[in-house]
Design brief:
alpha+beta; TRAPPC; golgi apparatus; Longin-like_dom_sf; Trafficking protein particle complex subunit; 4 helices; endoplasmic reticulum
């Protein structure tokens, strides 16, 4: 029976991209089962505020010098993965608990999708909401192709 539990489907719930000032530039969800019960703007502010607080807490309380800083945390139901770029962009992805580390995934989204389809696109204005259809479709394809993505995960 324990082998059946090991084969549990993994999944991605949602992804946020924040700028250095806390504005949510992009949001998408794939397998989110429960909504927050507040407006998206309120949810974005709550998420960014929590990230700001956790980063501050981790940097002050760590007994060691942390080169990477805050990477993730987990609850009993999901794991939040965090990646911050040198320019202050913050990528946040919520997955189920089966996904141990999504840092490479978030770095790939930044380097290969965000930089290619947003930064190098003269039509996109940096610091504003990401409304590039090409970026959105490539990101969606990338997320759905991840080994830990399952559309029917519980």
């Amino acid at each position: 029976m324990s082998q059946m539990k090991e084969e549990k489907k993994m999944t991605v719930h949602n992804l946020y991209i924040f700028d250095r000032n806390g504005s949510c530039l992009y949001y998408n969800e794939w397998n989110r089962k429960k909504q927050a019960g507040i407006s998206k703007d309120e949810e974005f502010k709550l998420m960014y505020g929590m990230l700001f607080s956790i980063r501050s807490f981790v940097s002050k309380m760590s007994p060691l010098d942390m080169k990477e800083g805050f990477l993730s945390f987990q609850t009993s139901k999901y794991r939040l993965h965090y990646y911050e770029t040198p320019s202050g962009l913050r990528f946040v992805m919520n997955t189920d608990l089966s996904v141990p580390n999504a840092r490479d995934t978030l770095q790939h989204i930044y380097s290969n999708l965000y930089v290619e389809y947003i930064v190098k696109n003269p039509v996109c204005v940096l610091g504003q909401s990401l409304d590039s259809e090409l970026f959105s479709s490539r990101l969606d394809s990338y997320i759905r192709a991840l080994p830990y993505y399952s559309p029917r995960a519980a």
